[in-house]
Amino acid sequence: MILDLFAGPGGWSYALSLLGIRDVGLEWDQWACRTRAAAGQLTLRTDVARYPVGPFLGRTTGLIASPPCQAWSTAGKRLGLLDQPLVHQAVADLAAGRDTRDKLLGACRDERSLLAAEPMRYLQALNTVGEPEWVAMEEVPDVLPLWKQYAVILRAWGFSVWCGILNAADFGVPQTRRRAILLASRSRPAEPPPPTHARHGEPETLFGPGRAPWVSMAAALGWGATDRPVPTVCAGGGPGGGPEPFPSGSRKTLADARDRGTWQPPPHTRRTGSPAGTAPAPAPAPAPAPAPARTWSLRTNSQANATVRTLDEPAGTLFFGHRANECVWVAEPAHPATAADAPAPEAIRITAPEAGVLQTFPADYPWAGNKGQQFSQIGNAVPPRLAAHLLSPHLGRPLGPDDFTLAA
Questions:
Q1: What is the pLDDT of residues 19-38, one digit of tens each?
Q2: Which residues of 159-171 are buried (b: 16+ CB within 10 A; e: fewer)?
Q3: 303: DSSP letter
Q4: Range of the structural domain that residue 150 is part of
Q5: Which CATH number belongs to the domain containing residue 185 in this structure?
Q6: Largest CA-CA distance found in the chain, in angstroms, rounded
Q7: How many structural domains comprise the chain?
Q8: DSSP secondary structure string, 167-203?
Protein backbone atom coordinates (compact mmCIF):
# COMPACT_ATOMS: atom_id res chain seq x y z
CA MET A 1 0.00 0.00 0.00
CA ILE A 2 0.88 3.68 -0.19
CA LEU A 3 0.57 5.31 3.23
CA ASP A 4 -0.45 9.00 3.30
CA LEU A 5 0.20 10.69 6.66
CA PHE A 6 -1.77 13.88 7.40
CA ALA A 7 -3.79 13.15 4.28
CA GLY A 8 -6.03 16.23 4.49
CA PRO A 9 -8.82 16.53 1.92
CA GLY A 10 -6.99 14.44 -0.65
CA GLY A 11 -4.47 16.43 -2.68
CA TRP A 12 -2.03 13.51 -2.86
CA SER A 13 -4.88 10.98 -3.09
CA TYR A 14 -6.57 12.73 -6.01
CA ALA A 15 -3.24 12.88 -7.85
CA LEU A 16 -2.73 9.15 -7.26
CA SER A 17 -6.22 8.42 -8.56
CA LEU A 18 -5.28 10.15 -11.81
CA LEU A 19 -2.29 7.82 -11.99
CA GLY A 20 -4.58 4.82 -11.46
CA ILE A 21 -3.53 4.10 -7.87
CA ARG A 22 -5.15 4.42 -4.44
CA ASP A 23 -3.57 5.18 -1.08
CA VAL A 24 -4.62 4.86 2.56
CA GLY A 25 -4.86 8.23 4.25
CA LEU A 26 -4.46 8.94 7.97
CA GLU A 27 -6.24 12.14 8.97
CA TRP A 28 -7.72 13.59 12.16
CA ASP A 29 -9.85 16.52 10.99
CA GLN A 30 -13.45 15.35 10.66
CA TRP A 31 -14.28 17.66 7.76
CA ALA A 32 -11.25 16.61 5.74
CA CYS A 33 -12.26 12.99 6.42
CA ARG A 34 -15.79 13.70 5.18
CA THR A 35 -14.40 15.33 2.05
CA ARG A 36 -12.19 12.31 1.42
CA ALA A 37 -15.13 9.94 1.95
CA ALA A 38 -17.26 11.88 -0.53
CA ALA A 39 -14.35 11.72 -3.01
CA GLY A 40 -14.13 7.93 -2.60
CA GLN A 41 -10.75 7.88 -0.84
CA LEU A 42 -9.70 5.30 1.76
CA THR A 43 -9.22 6.98 5.14
CA LEU A 44 -8.48 6.11 8.75
CA ARG A 45 -9.67 8.90 11.01
CA THR A 46 -6.99 8.89 13.65
CA ASP A 47 -4.27 10.89 15.38
CA VAL A 48 -1.15 10.27 13.27
CA ALA A 49 1.00 10.87 16.36
CA ARG A 50 -0.70 8.02 18.28
CA TYR A 51 -1.51 5.45 15.63
CA PRO A 52 0.73 2.34 15.76
CA VAL A 53 3.00 1.57 12.82
CA GLY A 54 2.70 -2.20 13.26
CA PRO A 55 -0.31 -2.71 10.92
CA PHE A 56 1.68 -1.26 8.01
CA LEU A 57 4.87 -3.31 8.40
CA GLY A 58 5.57 -5.64 5.50
CA ARG A 59 3.01 -4.03 3.19
CA THR A 60 4.05 -0.40 2.56
CA THR A 61 5.69 0.50 -0.75
CA GLY A 62 5.45 4.29 -0.51
CA LEU A 63 5.12 6.86 2.27
CA ILE A 64 3.70 10.35 1.76
CA ALA A 65 3.68 13.03 4.45
CA SER A 66 2.49 16.64 4.56
CA PRO A 67 2.57 17.56 8.26
CA PRO A 68 0.35 20.48 9.33
CA CYS A 69 2.03 23.75 8.43
CA GLN A 70 0.22 26.18 10.76
CA ALA A 71 3.10 26.30 13.24
CA TRP A 72 5.53 27.25 10.47
CA SER A 73 3.46 29.24 7.99
CA THR A 74 3.93 32.97 7.43
CA ALA A 75 0.14 33.22 7.83
CA GLY A 76 0.46 32.29 11.52
CA LYS A 77 2.66 33.12 14.51
CA ARG A 78 5.47 30.87 13.20
CA LEU A 79 6.22 29.43 16.62
CA GLY A 80 7.53 26.37 14.82
CA LEU A 81 10.71 28.31 14.07
CA LEU A 82 11.27 28.77 17.80
CA ASP A 83 10.52 25.09 18.38
CA GLN A 84 12.80 23.93 15.57
CA PRO A 85 15.65 22.70 17.83
CA LEU A 86 13.15 20.52 19.70
CA VAL A 87 11.81 19.10 16.44
CA HIS A 88 15.34 18.31 15.23
CA GLN A 89 15.98 16.52 18.53
CA ALA A 90 12.78 14.50 18.15
CA VAL A 91 13.77 13.43 14.62
CA ALA A 92 17.25 12.35 15.77
CA ASP A 93 15.83 10.42 18.71
CA LEU A 94 13.12 8.69 16.67
CA ALA A 95 15.65 7.69 14.00
CA ALA A 96 17.67 6.00 16.74
CA GLY A 97 14.59 4.20 18.07
CA ARG A 98 14.13 6.46 21.11
CA ASP A 99 10.69 8.02 21.65
CA THR A 100 11.17 11.29 23.53
CA ARG A 101 8.14 13.03 22.03
CA ASP A 102 6.17 13.49 25.24
CA LYS A 103 9.08 15.16 27.01
CA LEU A 104 9.87 17.43 24.04
CA LEU A 105 6.22 18.27 23.47
CA GLY A 106 6.00 19.83 26.92
CA ALA A 107 8.72 22.31 25.95
CA CYS A 108 7.20 23.29 22.57
CA ARG A 109 5.58 26.72 22.20
CA ASP A 110 3.19 25.27 19.60
CA GLU A 111 2.16 21.65 20.10
CA ARG A 112 1.74 21.27 16.33
CA SER A 113 5.46 21.87 15.74
CA LEU A 114 6.40 18.34 16.74
CA LEU A 115 4.07 16.82 14.14
CA ALA A 116 6.80 17.47 11.57
CA ALA A 117 8.84 14.75 13.33
CA GLU A 118 6.09 12.13 13.07
CA PRO A 119 7.08 10.81 9.61
CA MET A 120 10.40 9.70 11.13
CA ARG A 121 8.58 7.46 13.63
CA TYR A 122 6.93 5.63 10.74
CA LEU A 123 10.08 5.60 8.61
CA GLN A 124 12.23 4.16 11.39
CA ALA A 125 9.80 1.30 12.05
CA LEU A 126 9.25 0.58 8.36
CA ASN A 127 13.00 0.62 7.70
CA THR A 128 13.44 -2.39 10.00
CA VAL A 129 11.69 -4.48 7.33
CA GLY A 130 13.28 -2.72 4.34
CA GLU A 131 10.35 -0.41 3.63
CA PRO A 132 9.18 1.83 2.10
CA GLU A 133 10.55 1.78 -1.43
CA TRP A 134 10.05 5.54 -1.81
CA VAL A 135 9.14 8.67 0.18
CA ALA A 136 7.56 12.01 -0.80
CA MET A 137 7.09 14.83 1.72
CA GLU A 138 5.90 18.43 1.43
CA GLU A 139 5.84 21.44 3.74
CA VAL A 140 6.24 25.23 3.80
CA PRO A 141 9.72 26.52 2.82
CA ASP A 142 10.87 27.14 6.41
CA VAL A 143 10.82 23.39 7.04
CA LEU A 144 13.62 22.76 4.52
CA PRO A 145 16.34 22.50 7.24
CA LEU A 146 14.32 19.71 8.81
CA TRP A 147 14.01 17.92 5.47
CA LYS A 148 17.78 18.13 5.14
CA GLN A 149 18.09 16.33 8.47
CA TYR A 150 15.71 13.65 7.20
CA ALA A 151 17.85 13.38 4.05
CA VAL A 152 21.03 12.63 6.01
CA ILE A 153 19.28 9.85 7.93
CA LEU A 154 17.59 8.33 4.88
CA ARG A 155 20.86 8.27 2.93
CA ALA A 156 22.43 6.32 5.79
CA TRP A 157 19.61 3.79 5.36
CA GLY A 158 20.34 3.32 1.65
CA PHE A 159 18.01 5.85 0.05
CA SER A 160 18.85 8.26 -2.74
CA VAL A 161 17.44 11.61 -1.55
CA TRP A 162 16.74 15.05 -2.98
CA CYS A 163 15.25 17.97 -1.10
CA GLY A 164 14.73 21.60 -2.06
CA ILE A 165 12.18 24.29 -2.84
CA LEU A 166 9.81 23.94 -5.80
CA ASN A 167 7.35 26.49 -7.18
CA ALA A 168 3.98 24.95 -8.00
CA ALA A 169 3.53 27.41 -10.90
CA ASP A 170 6.42 25.66 -12.68
CA PHE A 171 4.23 22.55 -12.91
CA GLY A 172 1.03 24.08 -14.26
CA VAL A 173 -0.58 25.17 -10.99
CA PRO A 174 -2.17 28.66 -11.35
CA GLN A 175 -0.50 29.72 -8.10
CA THR A 176 3.09 30.64 -7.21
CA ARG A 177 3.04 28.35 -4.20
CA ARG A 178 6.59 27.57 -3.01
CA ARG A 179 7.05 24.41 -0.98
CA ALA A 180 9.88 22.45 0.62
CA ILE A 181 9.91 19.00 -0.98
CA LEU A 182 11.74 15.80 -0.03
CA LEU A 183 11.93 12.88 -2.46
CA ALA A 184 13.69 9.60 -1.60
CA SER A 185 13.96 6.22 -3.30
CA ARG A 186 15.69 2.90 -2.72
CA SER A 187 15.48 1.88 -6.39
CA ARG A 188 16.14 4.99 -8.51
CA PRO A 189 18.07 8.26 -8.28
CA ALA A 190 15.94 10.80 -6.45
CA GLU A 191 15.61 14.06 -8.34
CA PRO A 192 12.98 16.76 -8.81
CA PRO A 193 10.62 16.42 -11.77
CA PRO A 194 11.46 18.60 -14.78
CA PRO A 195 9.39 21.81 -14.81
CA THR A 196 6.69 21.98 -17.47
CA HIS A 197 6.00 25.73 -17.21
CA ALA A 198 7.98 28.95 -16.84
CA ARG A 199 7.21 32.59 -16.06
CA HIS A 200 7.69 33.29 -19.75
CA GLY A 201 7.02 30.60 -22.34
CA GLU A 202 10.01 28.95 -24.01
CA PRO A 203 10.14 27.87 -27.67
CA GLU A 204 10.79 24.33 -28.78
CA THR A 205 14.45 23.52 -29.47
CA LEU A 206 16.43 20.64 -30.98
CA PHE A 207 16.69 19.22 -27.45
CA GLY A 208 12.94 18.98 -26.92
CA PRO A 209 9.76 20.99 -26.40
CA GLY A 210 9.92 24.30 -24.60
CA ARG A 211 8.06 25.10 -21.42
CA ALA A 212 4.61 26.66 -21.52
CA PRO A 213 4.00 29.99 -19.78
CA TRP A 214 2.67 29.93 -16.23
CA VAL A 215 -1.07 29.22 -16.08
CA SER A 216 -3.05 32.33 -15.18
CA MET A 217 -6.07 32.45 -12.88
CA ALA A 218 -8.19 33.55 -15.85
CA ALA A 219 -7.12 30.51 -17.89
CA ALA A 220 -7.73 28.11 -15.00
CA LEU A 221 -11.16 29.56 -14.22
CA GLY A 222 -12.20 30.10 -17.82
CA TRP A 223 -12.57 33.87 -17.40
CA GLY A 224 -11.41 36.81 -19.48
CA ALA A 225 -8.68 38.99 -18.00
CA THR A 226 -11.17 41.78 -17.14
CA ASP A 227 -14.16 39.60 -16.26
CA ARG A 228 -16.05 40.21 -13.10
CA PRO A 229 -16.26 37.11 -10.84
CA VAL A 230 -19.66 35.69 -11.82
CA PRO A 231 -20.96 32.15 -12.40
CA THR A 232 -19.18 31.09 -15.58
CA VAL A 233 -17.23 28.28 -17.17
CA CYS A 234 -14.62 26.86 -14.84
CA ALA A 235 -12.01 24.17 -15.33
CA GLY A 236 -13.90 20.93 -14.96
CA GLY A 237 -17.36 22.54 -15.11
CA GLY A 238 -19.69 24.46 -17.36
CA PRO A 239 -20.01 24.00 -21.12
CA GLY A 240 -16.41 22.84 -21.41
CA GLY A 241 -16.57 20.07 -18.83
CA GLY A 242 -19.78 19.14 -17.12
CA PRO A 243 -22.36 20.89 -14.98
CA GLU A 244 -22.16 24.45 -13.75
CA PRO A 245 -19.65 24.35 -10.87
CA PHE A 246 -20.91 27.21 -8.71
CA PRO A 247 -23.99 27.05 -6.50
CA SER A 248 -26.80 29.45 -7.26
CA GLY A 249 -26.54 32.68 -5.31
CA SER A 250 -22.77 32.50 -4.89
CA ARG A 251 -22.36 35.37 -7.32
CA LYS A 252 -24.47 38.09 -8.90
CA THR A 253 -26.49 36.94 -11.87
CA LEU A 254 -25.10 36.82 -15.35
CA ALA A 255 -27.34 39.76 -16.24
CA ASP A 256 -25.20 41.91 -13.96
CA ALA A 257 -22.18 41.09 -16.08
CA ARG A 258 -22.82 44.33 -17.96
CA ASP A 259 -21.39 46.11 -14.91
CA ARG A 260 -17.94 44.81 -15.71
CA GLY A 261 -17.78 46.71 -19.00
CA THR A 262 -17.30 43.66 -21.22
CA TRP A 263 -20.96 42.81 -21.79
CA GLN A 264 -22.84 44.21 -24.79
CA PRO A 265 -26.58 43.81 -25.44
CA PRO A 266 -27.54 41.93 -28.63
CA PRO A 267 -28.13 44.16 -31.67
CA HIS A 268 -31.73 45.23 -32.28
CA THR A 269 -33.36 45.06 -35.71
CA ARG A 270 -35.30 48.24 -36.51
CA ARG A 271 -38.11 47.92 -39.02
CA THR A 272 -37.92 50.59 -41.68
CA GLY A 273 -41.49 50.20 -42.83
CA SER A 274 -44.78 48.52 -42.00
CA PRO A 275 -47.58 46.87 -43.96
CA ALA A 276 -50.47 49.06 -44.95
CA GLY A 277 -52.98 49.70 -42.19
CA THR A 278 -50.57 48.84 -39.37
CA ALA A 279 -48.73 51.15 -37.05
CA PRO A 280 -44.99 51.36 -37.42
CA ALA A 281 -43.01 49.31 -34.93
CA PRO A 282 -41.74 51.36 -32.01
CA ALA A 283 -38.04 52.03 -31.92
CA PRO A 284 -36.24 49.97 -29.29
CA ALA A 285 -35.10 51.66 -26.11
CA PRO A 286 -31.47 52.71 -26.22
CA ALA A 287 -29.08 50.19 -24.71
CA PRO A 288 -27.55 51.21 -21.38
CA ALA A 289 -24.02 52.49 -21.66
CA PRO A 290 -21.55 49.96 -20.25
CA ALA A 291 -19.69 50.94 -17.14
CA PRO A 292 -15.98 51.70 -17.51
CA ALA A 293 -13.92 48.52 -17.75
CA ARG A 294 -12.10 47.43 -14.63
CA THR A 295 -9.27 45.01 -14.00
CA TRP A 296 -9.88 42.28 -11.44
CA SER A 297 -7.17 40.99 -9.11
CA LEU A 298 -7.00 38.44 -6.31
CA ARG A 299 -5.80 39.46 -2.85
CA THR A 300 -4.66 36.23 -1.22
CA ASN A 301 -5.18 37.19 2.44
CA SER A 302 -6.01 40.11 4.74
CA GLN A 303 -2.48 40.78 5.94
CA ALA A 304 -0.72 44.04 5.12
CA ASN A 305 1.84 42.21 2.96
CA ALA A 306 -0.76 40.15 1.08
CA THR A 307 0.03 39.23 -2.51
CA VAL A 308 -2.22 40.91 -5.11
CA ARG A 309 -2.20 39.46 -8.63
CA THR A 310 -4.26 40.33 -11.70
CA LEU A 311 -6.35 37.67 -13.42
CA ASP A 312 -3.79 37.27 -16.20
CA GLU A 313 -1.22 36.02 -13.64
CA PRO A 314 -1.07 33.01 -11.32
CA ALA A 315 -2.37 33.63 -7.81
CA GLY A 316 -0.02 34.06 -4.89
CA THR A 317 -0.04 31.37 -2.21
CA LEU A 318 -3.60 31.04 -0.91
CA PHE A 319 -3.86 31.61 2.85
CA PHE A 320 -7.00 30.99 4.88
CA GLY A 321 -6.84 31.85 8.56
CA HIS A 322 -9.29 32.26 11.42
CA ARG A 323 -11.80 34.19 9.33
CA ALA A 324 -14.21 32.30 7.09
CA ASN A 325 -12.49 33.68 4.02
CA GLU A 326 -9.70 36.24 3.74
CA CYS A 327 -9.15 35.84 0.01
CA VAL A 328 -11.03 38.37 -2.17
CA TRP A 329 -11.35 39.54 -5.75
CA VAL A 330 -10.75 43.29 -5.97
CA ALA A 331 -11.45 45.64 -8.89
CA GLU A 332 -9.47 48.60 -10.19
CA PRO A 333 -10.06 50.81 -13.26
CA ALA A 334 -8.55 49.15 -16.32
CA HIS A 335 -7.45 52.57 -17.63
CA PRO A 336 -6.25 55.34 -15.28
CA ALA A 337 -7.98 57.93 -17.43
CA THR A 338 -11.36 56.47 -16.48
CA ALA A 339 -10.63 56.36 -12.74
CA ALA A 340 -12.78 59.41 -12.03
CA ASP A 341 -15.77 57.81 -13.75
CA ALA A 342 -15.23 54.30 -12.43
CA PRO A 343 -17.58 52.77 -9.87
CA ALA A 344 -16.44 52.59 -6.28
CA PRO A 345 -13.85 49.90 -5.52
CA GLU A 346 -15.43 46.49 -5.15
CA ALA A 347 -14.38 43.34 -3.34
CA ILE A 348 -15.99 39.94 -3.80
CA ARG A 349 -15.01 36.96 -1.70
CA ILE A 350 -13.63 33.98 -3.54
CA THR A 351 -15.77 30.82 -3.50
CA ALA A 352 -14.59 27.40 -2.40
CA PRO A 353 -14.88 25.96 -5.94
CA GLU A 354 -12.77 28.86 -7.30
CA ALA A 355 -10.13 28.42 -4.60
CA GLY A 356 -10.12 24.67 -5.21
CA VAL A 357 -9.56 25.16 -8.94
CA LEU A 358 -6.60 27.46 -8.16
CA GLN A 359 -5.20 24.49 -6.19
CA THR A 360 -5.95 22.29 -9.29
CA PHE A 361 -8.82 20.35 -7.72
CA PRO A 362 -11.87 19.79 -9.95
CA ALA A 363 -14.51 22.50 -9.68
CA ASP A 364 -17.02 19.93 -8.41
CA TYR A 365 -14.73 18.45 -5.74
CA PRO A 366 -16.98 17.51 -2.78
CA TRP A 367 -15.71 19.88 -0.07
CA ALA A 368 -17.42 19.12 3.27
CA GLY A 369 -18.26 21.52 6.09
CA ASN A 370 -19.12 25.20 6.26
CA LYS A 371 -17.21 27.89 4.37
CA GLY A 372 -14.49 28.23 6.98
CA GLN A 373 -13.93 24.49 7.17
CA GLN A 374 -13.82 24.19 3.38
CA PHE A 375 -11.35 27.05 2.97
CA SER A 376 -9.14 25.64 5.71
CA GLN A 377 -8.95 22.31 3.84
CA ILE A 378 -8.21 24.01 0.53
CA GLY A 379 -5.47 26.27 1.90
CA ASN A 380 -3.67 23.35 3.58
CA ALA A 381 -3.96 20.91 0.67
CA VAL A 382 -1.19 19.85 -1.67
CA PRO A 383 -2.03 20.97 -5.24
CA PRO A 384 -2.87 17.68 -7.00
CA ARG A 385 -1.12 18.75 -10.22
CA LEU A 386 2.15 19.30 -8.34
CA ALA A 387 1.64 16.03 -6.44
CA ALA A 388 1.13 14.12 -9.70
CA HIS A 389 4.46 15.37 -11.05
CA LEU A 390 6.24 14.42 -7.82
CA LEU A 391 4.75 10.92 -7.71
CA SER A 392 4.69 9.75 -11.33
CA PRO A 393 8.44 8.88 -11.53
CA HIS A 394 8.21 6.67 -8.41
CA LEU A 395 5.24 4.85 -9.86
CA GLY A 396 6.62 4.44 -13.40
CA ARG A 397 3.60 6.22 -14.87
CA PRO A 398 4.77 9.23 -16.90
CA LEU A 399 2.35 12.07 -17.38
CA GLY A 400 1.13 13.22 -20.77
CA PRO A 401 1.41 16.74 -22.23
CA ASP A 402 -1.61 18.08 -20.35
CA ASP A 403 -0.13 16.99 -16.96
CA PHE A 404 -3.25 15.25 -15.72
CA THR A 405 -3.32 12.43 -18.28
CA LEU A 406 -1.03 9.44 -18.46
CA ALA A 407 1.33 9.37 -21.43
CA ALA A 408 0.23 7.01 -24.23
A1: 999 999 999 999 999 999 99
A2: bbbebeebbbbbb
A3: S
A4: 2-201+381-395
A5: 3.40.50.150
A6: 102
A7: 1
A8: EGGGGT-SB--EEEEEEEESSS---PPPP-EESS---
